[in-house]
Amino acid sequence: MSYGIKSPARYVQGSGELANLGRNVKRMGEKFLVLCSANNKKRVGDAIEESLKSVEKDVVFCLFNGECSKAEISRVMDVVTENGCDVIIGVGGGKVIDTAKAVATNLGGYPIVIIPTVASNDSPCSGVAVIYNDEGVVIKALMMKRNPDLVLVDTDVIAKSPRRLLVAGMGDALATWFEARACKNSGAKTMARGQCSNTALMMSRLCYDILIRDGAKALEALEAKASNDALDNVVEACIYLSGVGFESGGLAAAHAINDGFAYVPQAHGMYHGEKVAFGTLTQLVLEHAPEDEKNEVLSFMKQVGLPMTLADLGITEVKEEEIRKVAEAACVPTQSTKNLRKDITPDEVYAAIMEADQIGRAFKA
């Protein structure tokens, strides 16, 4: 038996941390490519540029086109080389972050800095970049040469992000404990190229405990557009604990079912973490989890506003052939459902999705 743990080289989180970017990266390189959306350039671009120029670094901004695809990765690589940049900074949410990570890896392992402006998923700390086709379907998980050199989180920026995005982040993080526990029980290998360690399992459980305790209070901070202790804790859970937890603890059915929902057009407007949350409920059904555990999860989902039913995912017209496609996609050999139990069938997953929907509807009622 061997364990593996992966994490960023440095993680920094706090109020006003954007101002400290320059001193954190001054030994990484001289010319920084900043990949971000037009909106985030407006929100934080000046602060990033000012901090980098305070340590005499050059800055080149590149606007993200919206999809972490092979074409977009190739385009940004060209911008990096044409401008002679030697460090890449990804600023924003999951897809722009994954694009920056893929660019750094494909260029041979450039230094990479991640600045999340939302806590909507656990991508920032991981050494994985999820690549999509132009239709938004996952086609590949690219393994980086190493995890990010720096993840810098300014909680003042997160506090001004939309409520739904933090809720989605909590949905993504909600799965971390249950998937790591499943991998620990089954002995499955993780993305850290080893089995789930006690350290990763402990971090995953802490992630869950923070969500249950502080999730609702963190949303109050967003309403006030100001950070508080609960938001600090939840941001750490969503970005760091879940990021290290999923990569070193392992994935199971929750994330596989999320991927499967790409085949249901009605669900295309939902965020990753929203679909993962429903996948978590489905995984608990597959595991025959105790009623009190399911009820605690359902109570949390209802409290913060996570999807508990297929209708909550936008699937108001449930078509059996589409849901069966979700189940089939979740059970292909390359998917992580097998980490729950190697012999799970698409029929079992289909039945569990439908039962999770029924349980969610009953709980809401």
In short:
With 365 residues, this protein is an alpha/beta fold. It contains 13 helices and eight strands.
Supply the number of helical segments.
13
Annotated CATH topology of the largest domain = Dehydroquinate synthase-like, alpha domain
Structural class: alpha/beta
CATH superfamily of the largest domain: Dehydroquinate synthase-like - alpha domain
Number of strands: 8
Q: What does this 3D model show about the protein?
A:
The protein has 365 residues and is α/β, with parallel strands linked by helices. The protein folds into two domains: 11-158, Rossmann fold (3-Layer(aba) Sandwich); 163-364, Dehydroquinate synthase-like - alpha domain (Dehydroquinate synthase-like, alpha domain, Up-down Bundle). It contains 13 helices and eight strands. The strands form two sheets. The chain has a six-stranded parallel β-sheet, sandwiched between helices. Helix 2 links the parallel strand 2 (31-36) and strand 3 (58-63). Helix 3 (70-83) packs across helix 4 (94-106), helix 6 (163-186) runs parallel beside helix 10 (272-286) and helix 9 (253-260) packs across helix 10 (272-286). It is globular. It starts with 10 loop residues before the first strand and ends with a helix. The model has no long low-confidence stretch (mean pLDDT 96).
